[in-house]
Structure formats: structure tokens, C-alpha cells
Amino acid sequence: MGHASRCVPIIESLCEHNSVILGISEVNAGFFEWHFPQLQKVQLPSYGIRYSKHWPVFFKLLLQIPRLFAMVQKENALLKGLIKKHGIDLVISDSRFGCYSKQVKSVFITHQLNLQVPYFTRMARALNRSRIKRFTEVWVPDVEPPEQRLSGKLSDASEIHLPVFFIGPQSALQNFKTLDKIQAIDTLILLSGVEPQRTLLEEKLLNALEATSQKIVLVRGTEKKSQVQIKGMKVYNLAYGKTLAELIANSNRVICRSGYSTLMDLQVLGKKNIVLIPTPGQSEQEYLADYWSQHFQAKVLKQENIKKGVL
């Protein structure tokens, strides 16, 4: 969903002078239908990455590599047919490694050019580069000066032998920068990410805040039913566009994962009081949480340390 969110301003810009077709999956279909009901959409296979309650994300991904490679080949074959059928002359892929073509210009959007992983670092970076080099050029949703970057070392392009363009932070909320900031919400909780970790975090946070007197708003990031409720808490399953921007602007504090797209949303709206809870074992989020604590005054809380009185 984060990848879908940060593509919104790019799609809006392209729509001004181009005919745009969106490649969607089951996960983000509702999001794209809400933002772009007028655009033609084609179904792409979902990567279906699975996380674990106990295994670190990196090891879980290693076990899924053969299946992921098969999905990349499947989507590449599908793209060839779409290019021929619709006369497509430009492909823009946000982190979908199979959406490239030798026949037309292919752009790869990513902020992860220099992976920060705890094990097999050289192998992981080499594999990442080998997939990226199939594209024509790379767009990085960040600023170019290293000392100003939101993604830190992740977007270091020194080992990428393709044209790399820093296109600035991209957020679906960047058209709502001038919202009034009333600070009527004490704490806004933004949940996101793949299961089961999304649900685990929701349960921990709600149990920790059960007796609080704060005014809390929860955006669950899913339509799945919740088993835990707190009296007086306002709950949204999903929130998009102006609704989400107003919630962020009107909150005194935001508690969320340290996913890069979420961080860009908070940055574009000028939110400073942030508590980041990286997904356990997800090295990118762990790196970004640490980086933001050093450079953007964010507070970091480990999921395992969430308990009553901590928040």
C-alpha cells in the first residue's frame, strides 16, 4: 500500500498529458479505485509476501525467493502482452521487478538502492542490482543531497550503473499541506503492513492504551474485524486523501510503523512528534527508525516493549 500511495502524485502528473493504465493487485485495488476511478486498470499478480510471528523478515524472504522469482517471470510475460495490446510506450514500475521491457523505456521507482540487511549483505545487494539493471533508469523518491535525505544510506546510488534521478519525496497527501492544525487529537495511531505483524501491533497498542484518558484516533489499515475496542476511541478501518491528511494535521502525536511511504506522508505535512515502531526483523524499517531518531527527532519504540505506561 505504501508503494501505491507514493505513486499517486506521479500518476496525477502523468494524467495531464498521457493516457495512463494502472497495474493493480488485489491488495491495492480499492485504493486505486478511490483515487483514480476514471482510469483503466489491469490486474497484476500479487507477490504475496508472507511474514511470520517469530522469524525475522529477512529469513522469511529468503525462503520465498524461488516463488518470488516465478512471480517476476509471470508478470513480465503479462506485461509483454499488455504492451502489444495497448501500444504502451512507457512503463513505470514501483518495486515490481518484472515490469520491465526491452521494447520500451522502463523506469524503476525505489528508495532501496543500497540495502541495509543484517546478513548476506553483499549477496542481497548484488541480487538487488542485478534486477534493477534490467530497467532503463531509476527514479528515487527522495532529495539528492545525502545530508538532507529521508531515506539515508538506503538511496545511495554509487553502485547503480544506470541513470538515477532523485524526484523528491512523493506523497498522496502533498496536495493538503495547507490544512489547519487544530491539534484536537492527542494521539493518532496509523497501522499498516503485512499480516500477522499488523494485527500483533494493533493488539499490543490497544491493550497498552486501554485505560488512557487521551483522545485517540486509530486508522487500522485493514477492513479485517478487530477484537479489541476502547471506549471513546474513534476508529477508521481505512482513511485516504483529505480525511487522512486532516487526521495527521490535527494530531499532537503520531504512532506508526517506520515504513518509508508513511514517513514521507508525515514529512510533507510537517509532523514532528512521531513514535516509530519498526516491524520486528524488517531491516529497512529498523534502519529508517534509527535514522529518523538521529536526524528527525523521532522517538523509537520496539514492539516487544509496548506495555501500559510506556505510551
Rg, nearest Å: 19 Å
Q: How do the helices and strands follow one another from N- to C-terminus?
A: HEHEHEEHEEEHEEHEHEHE
Q: How confident is the prediction overall: mean pLDDT?
A: 91
For the record, give the distance between the C-alpha atoms at the N and C termini, rounded to a whole number. 26 Å
Structural class computed from helices and strand pairing: alpha/beta
Task: Estimate what percentage of residues fall within beta strands.
Answer: 15-25%
Whole-number count of domains: 2
Shape call: globular
Question: Which consecutive residue ranges, at least 5 long each, have pLDDT under 50?
Answer: none
Description:
The chain has 311 residues and is of the alpha/beta class. Strand 1 (21-24), helix 2 and strand 2 (40-43) form a beta-alpha-beta unit. It contains 8 helices and 12 strands. The strands form 3 sheets. Strands 9-8-7-10-11-12 form a 6-stranded parallel β-sheet, covered by helices on one side. A 4-stranded parallel β-sheet has the order 3-4-5-6. The chain folds into 2 domains: 2-166, no CATH class; 174-305, Glycogen Phosphorylase B (Rossmann fold, 3-Layer(aba) Sandwich), CATH 3.40.50. Helix 1 packs across helix 7.
